[in-house]
Input
Amino acid sequence: MVQALRHPAVEDRPVFPAAEVPASALLQKLEAFQDLSAEARKAVSRLVASAKDYPAHTDILREGEPADGVLIVLRGFACRNQFRQNGARQITAFLLPGDHCRLETGLINRMDHTISTLSPCRVARVPSEALQAVVRQHPAVRQALRMCILINEATLREWIVNIGCRTAIERIAHLFCELHLRLSSVGLVRGMTYDLPVTQTDIAVTVGLSNVHVNRSLQALRKQRLIALSGRRLTILDWQRLSELAEFSPSYLQAERRILNG
Amino acid sequence: MVQALRHPAVEDRPVFPAAEVPASALLQKLEAFQDLSAEARKAVSRLVASAKDYPAHTDILREGEPADGVLIVLRGFACRNQFRQNGARQITAFLLPGDHCRLETGLINRMDHTISTLSPCRVARVPSEALQAVVRQHPAVRQALRMCILINEATLREWIVNIGCRTAIERIAHLFCELHLRLSSVGLVRGMTYDLPVTQTDIAVTVGLSNVHVNRSLQALRKQRLIALSGRRLTILDWQRLSELAEFSPSYLQAERRILNG
DNA sequence: CGTTCCCTTGACCTAACTCAAAGAATGTGG
DNA sequence: CCACATTCTTTGAGTTAGGTCAAGGGAACG
Output
């Protein structure tokens, strides 16, 4: 069922209604880096079997709470948040389906920031020991997870560049390109469209702008026919021009580019 | 030899002339996290024995070059740089004495950014195998290095917050507080003074501002008697107020606060 | 002792912010 | 299924933090 997305006159239904979200994003992501044996797949699946559902805008782990192990997002968008005393907030990472984040904070095993959901999420919390066991038995899993960690780090650096020296439009364009690639690697992109279950204020807090200015920049992107965005569904109308505008070079995500500009 | 630093009327000699930089910053840093046996210390020392000296403003590793293993800075300030096509630059990390950075970039073992010196540096490049060997024999070293990695990551997040939602003055104040703590953990702070062998433009490129505005913000910090800065030597005159201004909370560095405000 | 790099200052500009309020959606309870 | 409440998005008007350009003054370096 290929979609005709030539015109932004799009229906506003989600691309992936909750029921038909592709199964294990986690496996899909890991297998992009390493072939996994049937047992490895099973072991990984068991790890996340006890995942729980969280509504949107809910804290999964608050700053100061003791924490250990990893958190794995299976469905929905979550994020890492840091707060300032004046109430200002900064999102320092998006956690998409298949993403994991380490919770070990070293000596002091307490969160130094908050992890919360942006949309409704399904999230597994995996204790260190369980993870260690799997990783010890399945080196391929260890290797794949290590790749994820490297990518996460490269992404943090890329975000610093984004916020540090790009204009408002460029920042947003860059974010959209990044999300496209990350989501497509876990099968959550159809054509050039993906669900972006996030408010404009969330985007603002991610790229270091005000919500008003994000709104205006989005309109500029729409006017230039680079994107269509409504009802929390984003379509990239012109990948070529959008990625050029953002100076987006996907190598930091270590993903093969399977972007075909429709 | 305690210094009288009540007045910013300071002599402009470096705090640590090249000759008397404290020996192995690396060991000092690792031992802040883990006690090391004599053999472990020796093994680590051997690892960095082949360090080379680089002049200021020199690329150690350029974007696109194949790379592997780790880089360990023993003396001087280095940094990770990312460039934009228009020539704009963003520093995404400071590499201080004792800091290391992984060079494995995963599948594609190529640098996705450049590492260069800010001041003259002594840097060791350690191949994976050599490091692996040491780490395998000395779990304490592995553990300490793991801590460093977690701290590096937390620092990246903190920088995103810094650039994303603080004012110019706050950003610079935050950077100075961070550097103070990091340098003091490797014995490179005397009283409240440390060498900051970096231009104002470097600072600008670090915190996402223009050099002109950094200059003006520095003057504001001086006028408020929070810092003294001249001849590449920084003195924090009022840690209390400076860290409050920056909303600096040192926990992400996992260092015991041994800050005594003179 | 000249050259180069760095810091400083001034004048002007603009990208992005704030405040405020009106429409759209979306959700909720009756 | 409708009425109400809430949360988002959009728009307008005015402000400001920080940028740009340009040029002079120091300090450092070969």
Q: What stands out?
A: Chain B has two domains: 18-156, 168-253.
